[in-house]
């Protein structure tokens, strides 16, 4: 029973990290019609920045957020400006961002080499700290990541539904020309939203650096999970993405502790297939901006 | 709705196709740095610190071209970089000391992208188009296995390092520099178990977590289709209860379920038949749920990250060389270790000490050059015969005699090392233990 309880708790918490990793892609795909594969390398690049800043300045890895998040906002905004210049549509974006993904992977390997990197425990107490309730442990790094995912998902949902910017984003997502006719500047909206989605990648990268050993090939292992979460959650639906992250996390973790870790990827991809077959529009479609 | 669904199918299919194209089926990511093979001849670093050359003559004449691939990109690149740095030091030093057969040596190094098919194709090209004089093996079990078939087809002597599927290599002129013996699935676990029993308090229960990578599966369960050895059955033979036997995918990224199952089984000793950072990730996940077994072993870990892992103190592994006495009693080993340390630091590799990978890499180069010097020519058959007849004198592993009746393998020279006081020390067998170090293990702690 303890084993299953721990599996479910770990699944919920790791689901928060999955959601954090997926939020940027979901919004970018849903609202901007950009299938941003570079998102995966942004997460990894952020993890390396956090690693480097933590080591170079001997600071708490969470403090690096102050530098890394604004930096990635800028990167995301600039990328969107570039997309406007080359008139990227949904399918072109797949190819172009895949190119960016490859370039960034190579850049990371050139700068930090292909070796494994890890923030030492003297600078990173979060990796191994946990809070206990009975026999069930709640790892601190995953708790913080989960909290961040909830804040962002709910915050973005409110932003999209209750603010002028949110309405503008939804208008641009539905009909760019009509939005322009009503005085919305689609380019400006897209640039800001792209900056925000890249910030979410940066935050995800921070928690990856805190909790894992990083290496250039790591990003590829996220593709299956993140696409499952994004599709299950519904494009542009932040609360749906959080829900989907938790579902994927709990399902794969419970399967792993019940039938062994080899069953976890199987469950993840079964969820992806089921989502594509039965709910291609996502679990919570009504709030989707897509 | 139908269009919506169709579009999403298409996108997912395209994503999978792109990833497959980039990765060749592995969890690799890097393809853009792959330079055309013809343009990838390495230049030796000019600023690598070297010792004063002997009064040897400058090598003259046409360079001897030694071809090979390494995993310079892809998921094996972290370790491939170690082999690249070691090879560069070896070739530079060789040329400073008179070259090979009086001629300068040039290393034609290609990137196999960590992919066995790329490796095989590159060796085919090196031999048939580039017409290299000699070949040296790549890094990685799959790459070595596929390249060996090409070397065998053309009759090239094939020295190689750190291939784990020992039983699969029956080419008469292959020479492994990783002294695991032909049956590491028996000798490696027995070394560990003997060491545990030597403490007087062996474990009563043992747990296994096994990467589904072929080499670690071989160590854990023995050769497929035979009932010969394997860490799991050998533990059972000693009367230890196996309370956990868990296999995990090579691309595992969420370690919480693995940690939860280990905690649930609560073994006296945990055998991690993993590689790279598997052990680091498992230990971190166990620490996160506040669990730590009394003793742990990791088969082939990345030594640097494991040293930095909270909770890794006391974990054991196997090695063939460590930079402390008695291994460093030979001053030449100290000197070469220093050169390799510098080269690894220059290549920005965080863990710069010489251990299994670097030592095996150096040994493979020694096989090749000693065979050529011994045979007095670059005739492949003569070189192969010379090695089989004379063996090789190696810097890090001593004199080696190849045993054709054991597929050219020799005894398992592995030693047990352990992290103590934030560093790796050989602790067993006793005669190879670092000064004032011995195995620390007690299942009651």
Task: Please summarize what this structure is.
With 290 residues, chain A is mostly helical. Chain A has eleven helices and two strands.
Write up what this structure looks like:
The complex is a heterodimer of chains A (290) and B (445). Chain A is mainly α and 290 residues long. Chain A has a domain at 2-116 and 136-219. Chain A contains 11 helices and 2 strands, in the order ααααββααααααα. In chain A, strands 1-2 form a two-stranded antiparallel ribbon. The longest helix of chain B is centred in the N-terminal third of the chain and has 22 residues, at 2-23. Chain B has 445 residues and is of the alpha/beta class. The termini of chain B are far apart. Chain B is built from 13 helices and 14 strands. In chain B, helix 2 (77-96) links the parallel strand 1 and strand 2. Chain B folds into 3 domains: 1-30; 37-179 and 330-406, Rossmann fold, CATH 3.40.50; 184-319 and 414-432, Rossmann fold. At the A-B interface, helix 1, helix 4, helix 5, helix 9 and helix 10 of A face helix 1, helix 2, strand 7, helix 8 and helix 9 of B.
Q: What is the end-to-end distance of chain B? A: 62 Å
When the domains of chain B are counted, the total is 3
Give average pLDDT of chain B, whole number: 88
Oligomeric state: heterodimer
How many H/I helical runs of chain B? 13
Helical coverage of chain B, percent range: 25-40%
CATH homologous superfamily annotation of the largest domain in chain B: Response regulator
Largest interface: A-B, 69 and 64 residues
Spatial ordering of strands, largest sheet of chain A: 1-2
Detail the poorly predicted runs of chain B: 21-54
Q: What integer is the average pLDDT of chain A?
A: 90
């Amino acid at each position: 029973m303890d084993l299953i309880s721990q599996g479910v708790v770990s699944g919920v918490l790791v689901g928060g990290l999955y959601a954090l990793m997926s939020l940027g892609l979901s919004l970018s795909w849903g609202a901007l019609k950009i299938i941003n594969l570079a998102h995966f390398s942004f997460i990894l690049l952020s993890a390396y920045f956090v690693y480097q800043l933590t080591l170079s300045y001997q600071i708490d890895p969470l403090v690096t957020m102050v530098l890394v998040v604004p930096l990635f906002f800028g990167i995301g905004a600039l990328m969107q400006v570039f997309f406007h210049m080359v008139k990227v549509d949904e399918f072109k974006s797949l190819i172009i961002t895949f190119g960016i993904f490859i370039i960034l992977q190579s850049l990371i390997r050139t700068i930090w080499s292909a070796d494994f990197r890890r923030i030492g425990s003297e600078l990173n107490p979060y990796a191994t700290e946990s809070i206990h309730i009975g026999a069930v442990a709640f790892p601190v790094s995953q708790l913080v990541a989960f909290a961040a995912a909830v804040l962002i998902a709910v915050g973005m949902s409110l932003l999209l539904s209750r603010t002028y910017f949110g309405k503008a984003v939804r208008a641009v997502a539905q009909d760019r020309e009509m939005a322009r006719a009503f005085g919305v500047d689609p380019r400006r909206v897209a640039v800001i939203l792209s900056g925000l989605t890249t910030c979410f990648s940066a935050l995800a990268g921070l928690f990856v650096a805190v909790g894992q050993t990083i290496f250039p090939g790591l990003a590829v292992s996220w593709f299956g999970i993140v696409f499952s979460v994004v599709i299950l959650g519904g494009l542009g639906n932040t609360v749906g993405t959080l829900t989907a992250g938790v579902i994927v996390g709990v399902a794969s973790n419970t399967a792993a502790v019940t039938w062994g870790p080899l069953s976890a990827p199987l469950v993840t991809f079964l969820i992806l297939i089921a989502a594509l077959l039965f709910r291609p529009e996502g679990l919570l479609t009504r709030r989707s901006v897509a | 709705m139908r269009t919506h669904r169709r579009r999403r199918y298409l996108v997912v299919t395209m994503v999978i196709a792109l990833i497959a194209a980039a990765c060749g089926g592995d969890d690799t990511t890097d393809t853009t740095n792959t330079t055309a093979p013809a343009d990838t001849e390495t230049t030796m670093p000019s600023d690598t610190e070297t010792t004063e050359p002997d009064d040897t003559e400058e090598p003259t004449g046409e360079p001897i071209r030694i071809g090979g691939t390494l995993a310079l990109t892809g998921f094996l690149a972290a370790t491939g970089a170690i082999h690249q740095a070691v090879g560069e030091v070896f070739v530079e030093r060789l040329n400073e000391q008179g070259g090979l057969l009086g001629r300068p040596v040039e290393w034609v190094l290609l990137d196999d992208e960590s992919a066995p098919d790329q490796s095989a194709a590159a060796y085919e090209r090196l031999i048939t188009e580039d017409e290299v004089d000699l070949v040296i093996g790549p890094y990685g079990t799959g790459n070595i296995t596929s390249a060996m078939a090409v070397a065998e087809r053309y009759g090239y002597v094939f020295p190689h390092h750190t291939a784990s599927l020992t039983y699969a290599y029956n080419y008469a002129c292959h020479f492994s520099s990783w002294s695991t013996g032909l049956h590491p699935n028996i000798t490696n676990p027995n070394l560990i178990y003997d060491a545990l029993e030597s403490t007087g308090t062996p474990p009563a229960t043992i747990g296994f977590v096994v990467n589904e990578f072929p080499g670690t599966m071989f160590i854990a369960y023995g050769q497929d289709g035979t009932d010969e050895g394997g860490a799991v059955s050998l533990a059972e033979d000693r009367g230890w209860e196996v309370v956990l036997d868990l296999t995990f995918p090579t691309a595992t990224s969420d370690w919480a379920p693995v940690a939860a199952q280990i905690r649930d089984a609560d073994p006296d000793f945990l055998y991690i038949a993993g590689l790279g950072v598997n052990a680091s990730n498992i230990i971190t996940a166990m620490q996160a749920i506040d669990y730590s077994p009394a003793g742990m072993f990791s088969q082939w870990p990345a030594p640097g990250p494991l040293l930095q892992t909270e909770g890794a103190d006391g974990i054991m592994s196997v090695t063939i060389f460590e930079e402390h006495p008695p291994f460093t009693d030979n001053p030449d080993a100290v000197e070469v270790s220093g050169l390799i340390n510098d080269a690894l630091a220059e290549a920005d590799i965080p863990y710069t000490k010489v251990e299994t990978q670097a030592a095996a890499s150096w040994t493979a180069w020694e096989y090749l050059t000693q065979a050529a010097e011994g045979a007095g020519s670059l005739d492949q058959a003569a070189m192969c015969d010379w090695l089989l007849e004379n063996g090789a004198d190696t810097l890090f592993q001593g004199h080696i005699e190849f045993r054709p009746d054991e597929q050219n393998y020799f005894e398992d020279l592995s030693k047990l090392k352990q992290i103590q006081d934030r560093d790796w020390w050989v602790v067993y067998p006793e005669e190879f233990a670092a000064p004032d170090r011995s195995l620390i293990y007690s299942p009651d702690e």
